[in-house]
Amino acid sequence: MSEYNRLALVVSDAPRAQEAAEREFRSVTDWVPLEEADAVVVLGGDGFMLQTLHAMLDTGRIIPAYGLNLGTVGFLMNRNRNPETLIKRIGKAKPHHIAPLRMQAETQDGAVHTFCAINEVSLLRETRQTAKLEVTVDDKVRIAELVCDGVLVATPAGSTAYNLSADGPILPLDPNLLALTPISPFRPRRWHGAILPDRSRISLRVLEQEKRPVSVVADQRELRHVSSVGLEIARDSELTLLFDPGHALDERIVAEQFVV
Fold first, then answer.
1. Which DSSP helix (H) or strand (E) runs through 138?
2. Backbone dihedral region of 257: left (phi > 0), alpha (psi from -120 to 50 degrees) or beta?
């Protein structure tokens, strides 16, 4: 018997997802409101899954999420197959736990904002001027002046997204690592990033802030004109994704390394 007896259904606004929900999924079981559920079925794509997970982080009520892909890539999702077997599939699903990044960013006006990121936190130049950043890891300055278009810190779950496009490494899930990846670095020209233990505390300070303004994006949330950003793993906000056997996230990360 499944440990998830009370299921909620959340559906993307995309027409394809809305149509599938009405045609195939509303009648599968007696769905309950999200606040009463043991687990949630997420119908949509990766972006909607991230949105759903962030909503749970914001409310502080975190329950396992089982995604059904009706988007494009579906990296965080399961295949959308026979709706009649959905409940049985959820009962056999394997949990995978991921801890998000917690970002504390200070803007030029002195305001402090705290967001979580499941995939990555990216600092990006706002104008034609390159950014200049000081990179500190565990209270030790590692790069006094990184001249670049930006820099990002990615979790293993996010290492195949923007991080990979910026020539960052694909991280396996088991060893508890983070990727620190520069975006179009100019100086030091030979620095291509670092792989860090996920216990690391990373600080990124913006140099020449007014002349070279920088924004920060934590997954889907953006702040402009930041002066500094601190990052560490939020172990108290661990998320659980449910995957069909043989279709888990760690296997997808391995498979992604052989895509040519």
1. none
2. alpha
